[in-house]
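User: I'm curious whether this sequence folds into something compact or stays loose and floppy. Could you predict its structure so I can see for myself?
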Amino acid sequence: MSCSYWLWTFVMERWVRVITVGGLSPCTMSRAALAGVTLVVLIVLALLGLAVAGAAAVDESADEAINVTPPHIHPDELEDDADLDGIQALLSAYLRGNLESSAIDISEQEYEMAREVLGDAYHERLSQLGSIDELTDEDGHPALFEVSRDEQEELADLLEAFDAVYAEYLDAVEAGEEELAVELAQELFILDAEIAELSESLLDSYDRLEELLEIDMETAQSAVIERTDETGSQTASAVEGTLTVTDLEVAIEDEVASFTEPMTVTGTLVTDEGEAVANEVIVLEIEERVVEVTTDADGSFSFEFRPVLSLAGETDVSVAFVPQRGQPYLGDTAADTVVIEQADPTLSLSTEVDTVSFGDEVAFEGLFEVDGEAVPVGELEVRLDDLVESTIAVSAGQFDGSVTVPAAVPAGTAQLVINWPYEDVAIAPETTSIDLEVAETESELTVAGTFGTSITVDGHLSTVAGDPIADQQVAVSLGGHDLGVVVTDEDGVYRGVFEVPAALEAGETDLVATFDGAGTNLESTVVTVVVEVPATDSTGTLALVVRVWDWMTDVAPGWVWGMIVVGVLGLAALGLRWSRGSVSSSAGEFIDEATTRPAPSQVEVPDELADDLLTAAEAHLEASRPAAATVLGYGALRTHLGEDRTGLSAAAFLEEYRGTAPNGHLDAITEVTDGFHRVVFAGEPVEQSAADTYLELVRGVVEPSAG
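Assistant: Here's the prediction. I'll summarize afterward.
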């Protein structure tokens, strides 16, 4: 454990003892005096923290580990004279090394390990490189490292799938299951084509990294080439032993074609040795549409085709032979040129309703035709007053669907629009619409306020029928003072944490929530409740701690967190000693805590202070300060459990309660203590979600006893 921790705890414990032994018992001090002493001590601790941090920086400068920036210092906070170019080079070397290691794992078919190497640590270094780039004129090309990682992970997935299919193929061949072997060989052929394409893209990314950053990617390149060459050989072997290569030829007999004047496509399908694929039903794909034809004795076929998505003007029309299950062939593709003329379509649309309101599902249907001929396929855009956008498929000229009326569509007349948007394909653009009358819906609003060091305002916005209203703004005021605006979530719930206006007097006052409904189809609504504003003391212990915490977290880096939490726990300790009278005797002699401290399960629980600390922690969490939330949450936990020895380390505190944790809460105490230790003494960042989990665990320990 760091020397800074012991220095802080030593000073804090001695402060308590000096105050008590010297006759400055909290019992004899005014709250203002106590706050003044506290502020002086916290300032002293801040100076000590600066000194300790400076010493720590000297120690860290001697550490030449690959972790080029301390984990608790974000690159954005680096000093101007830091060797940013050197850090950038080290980060690039780290990322290059991980790509290389992952490529080697891929070549050895260790796919899980290959992905793990490109996991969280790689992502963290990639993020650091991006931050460094923002501070320098040099580009470390984090985007290219990210593309390389994504391609390499995808390659690992494809190769793993290939290996599984290849193993199945060998088993099928050995078992004499010819039809299954054919199907698996076709799948291998498709996978190998995808692997070859992705490998080529990954190797191009490697080349760009080499060129732009002057780094050596040869080992990674060799590993990828070796593995993909192996899959190519395995595929060729499977194809040669199982499938027959085919040769497709097609011709379009018409020079000009359109949807109203379909083209005639003829062709032949033979094997690579010239033998006709005779008298078989084959599947052809054209414009991603499937056409089934039957070949004759010569392998010839013919069909008519109405273009829908082919480019207008002179264009190549591609036709692909797609072998079906059990057909022992490899597919092939051919194309021919034709001039496509645009055709003008018609769209029709109908609904069964003409008046709608918030939350209504509006069903519709329609037809998409050209000169009475159904358009076989396509995708239409659906819009409701340009605020709701979706797509819907056309099948044999018909379409149907529905849209839900959101709050954002204003009351009045709205348009339901169906659009074929393509401008340069065989079927020209077309749009149709119908008008809908949107009625106003009555809304209902609730509000409640909870006071701590701030006020937490909660409520719910819904229709009078109880349907939640999401993504709407609710304005909140207290005693005529505007607090701010909050937004409802998907369940219509809103929550905000606000400072209590300094000019607001203690006593009953109005808490008002207002939804004005502007720009929506919802009626405005206002709700008012009377709340009791508690008396506040700006020099109070908790207020002082929170204000100092806010100031320090705004202007200082992570090393001050330990100092602040020791101050918080010191204040909690003073509160406990004050209430229990166990600090000093009338003669001013210090009483040994080891003889007066009750067992953990017997300590009188100071819930009021613990609850206040927890409320402050929740406010920091709401303001996206997870580190502050974690530290104050830990302080609430120790205060609730009656911890009054500021010299007791986190580890010692945990050991104190092992086996005697009240209500079986040892797991929660362990996890919260570990989170505190990571934030304060290991200097690790903490995610918002992790801090939320810590506070939930603290609530589970603190709140059950509140009643």
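Summary: The two ends are 38 Å apart (CA to CA). DSSP finds 16 helices and 24 strands in the chain.
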